[in-house]
Amino acid sequence: QFTSDLLPSDVLGVSVYHPASGTFEVRHGPIFTQVLLADEINRAPPRTQSGLLQAMQEGTITIDDQTAALPRPFLVLATQNPLEHYGTYPLPESQLDRFLMRLTIGYPEADAERRILLDSRALEPGFDRIQTVLGPDEVLRLQDAVDNVRADEALVDYLMEIVQRTRESALFRLGVSPRGSVALFRAARAYAMTRGRDYLVPDDIRDVVVPCLAHRLLPAGMAAATLDAHEQAASLLRTILDEVEVPV
Fold it and tell me: Which of 35, 99, 123, 191 is deepest in the core (most CB within 10 A)?
């Protein structure tokens, strides 16, 4: 749970001095896990948020000049309520760029909410009902398998044209970074795998463009990555998709 008084050492770990031996011992924090859930991440101050940058990019953590590798696979999931502003801090662009996707949950459909109301256990923690679907080794194999999904050069050019439009358009203050284009390419190939294919088609790219890129963009006239900025970026991306010719 991320809070306003959370320190980087609360997440990463700390170096503890032992007077008897005159040595320091590094005690690892909760980030040393395979799946890190940063609940309400935007409630933590920027200094604490920035502590995740090295972990999300390199899979390592440095504490007092000692660098340690995080377990693999290392996945970061974060939640935030974009409508709340009091007691929250905007995520820096460098951190947003390290998230593969941003998904907006919204309200449940009426039928789903009805089932919640009728199920007395719906609002209770259901950890005891969760079943293991994949193990760490299987996740790593699937991540490696993404690189085997074939992509025609015309589709790579199509993806790059979408990315270039965000960099060249006056409608954006901040376009897609090279990290973002790599993320889009990998996400599209992973999406193709979920559809049972070992090759890429244009729809694989189109279907993941908004969740992969919208949070990385800053539209002109926007000072920070707010909910309004995200919605405007998503709308501009859809316009770009309509304008860029789809390869046949």
Answer: 191
Final residue belonging to a domain, choices 65, 91, 117: 91
Is the pTM higher than 0.90? The answer reads no
The number of folded domains in the chain is 2
Q: Which of 164, 171, 176, 177 is nearest to 220 (CA)?
A: 171
Which of 91, 112, 147 is the last residue before a domain boundary? 91
What is the pLDDT at residue 225?
66
Q: Which two tokens stand for residue 244?
A: 């860029």
**Rounded Cα gap, residues 8 and 11, in angstroms:** 5
HSE (side-chain half, CA atoms, 13 Å) at 33: 13
Alpha-helical segments (H) within the chain: 8-12, 46-50, 53-58, 93-96, 110-118, 136-145, 153-168, 178-194, 202-213, 227-243
Predicted confidence at residue 230, as pLDDT, reads 87
Average pLDDT score over residue span 10-17 = 88
Q: What is the pLDDT of residues 176-210, one digit of tens each?
A: 999 999 999 999 999 999 999 999 999 999 999 99
Around Cβ 216, how many Cβ atoms within 10 Å?
Answer: 25
Q: Which helix (H) or strand (E) holds 135?
A: none
Say which CATH number the domain at 208 has. Answer: 1.10.8.80
pLDDT at 122: 67
- Note down the domain range covering 72: 1-91
Does the bond joining 73 to the residue before it have cis omega, within 30 degrees of 0? yes
On whether the CB atoms of residues 95 and 53 are closer than 8 A, the answer is yes
Alpha carbon of residue 33 to chain centroid = 17
Tell me, what CATH number does 73's domain have?
A: 3.40.50.300
State whether 79 and 175 are in the same domain: no
